[in-house]
Specification:
5 helices; mainly alpha; single chain
Length: 87
């Protein structure tokens, strides 16, 4: 089947069809991960995180000036607390 015929049936430009036929596999789209609001505090000292493991998430939110939902921060604090309690 020719490029013109494929383009006509799919309603695409001929150059788009040509580019798609040159690909080895199907086209893919991957979104760039934005990350979380609390990721900025992740790069800090692990020893400091161990000291905060028993602190309430609301107190940590006040210290770091978190203006957004506390849910993500609460999950991250719980993960750090479980990781620290293993040691």
């Amino acid at each position: 089947m020719g490029v013109k015929t494929i383009a006509r049936r799919l309603g695409l430009a001929r150059y788009t069809v040509r580019a798609a036929l040159r690909l080895i596999g199907p086209p893919s789209y991957e979104r760039v991960r934005k990350g979380s609001i609390v990721d900025a505090g992740r790069a800090g000292d692990p020893g400091a995180a161990a000291g905060l493991a028993d602190t309430a998430a609301t107190a940590i939110a006040e210290r770091i000036g978190c203006e957004h939902s506390i849910g993500v921060l609460r999950e991250r604090v719980a993960a750090v607390a479980s990781h620290v309690s293993r040691f």
